[in-house]
Each structure stands twice: as C-alpha cells, then as structure tokens.
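User: I'm curious whether this sequence folds into something compact or stays loose and floppy. Could you predict its structure so I can see for myself?
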Amino acid sequence: MSVVIVGGNERMAGQYESICREHGCKAKVFTKENGSLKKKMGCPDLLILFISTVSHKMVLSVTQEAKRNQIPVARVMTSSATALRSALASHIQREKAAEG
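Assistant: Here's the prediction. I'll summarize afterward.
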C-alpha cells in the first residue's frame, strides 16, 4: 500500500516514513509545497492531510487531485505520530472490512 502525507512537521518526516513502514506502507511526505504536488503525488492508496500545518491553497489542490483519481483522503487535525498511526490503522481496518 502506498501513502502520501501532506503537511506535518518537517523534523518528523523521517518518523512519518518509519511509522508507515511499520504498517506495511510506502510513504511520500510533503511538509512544504515545492513546485506542483499534483505531479509528484502519483496515485497512492491513501492521502493523509495534516490539516493544522497545511495552507488552504495546498489542501484545495491536493484534494482536487485526490477526487479526480478517486483516492481516499484522511484529514487529521494534529501532526503527531499517534494521529498518523490511528489514521493508518483505521484505513487498513476499512480495507479489510471491504475485502471480507
């Protein structure tokens, strides 16, 4: 499973990636908007938005791209490791429930 994380704390980007690896996911982390995120995002299985640390413009562009490609979006208020773990766990649970 692939995950794109938008927002969050720059210093925690490495920790976000390792948390995703713990859950069996490959992660791309974009804490700042450097160029067009639409092109860099690709087509992941889940998009996680850390709402409190992302500009409104960035949220709009990323959610439009997610809607166009039918990518589920998890909006998380805080950019903590615990919040990321719970967002990943709930998405994985929903996927398993949909399969079986």
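Summary: The chain has a mean pLDDT of 91. The two ends are 17 Å apart (CA to CA).
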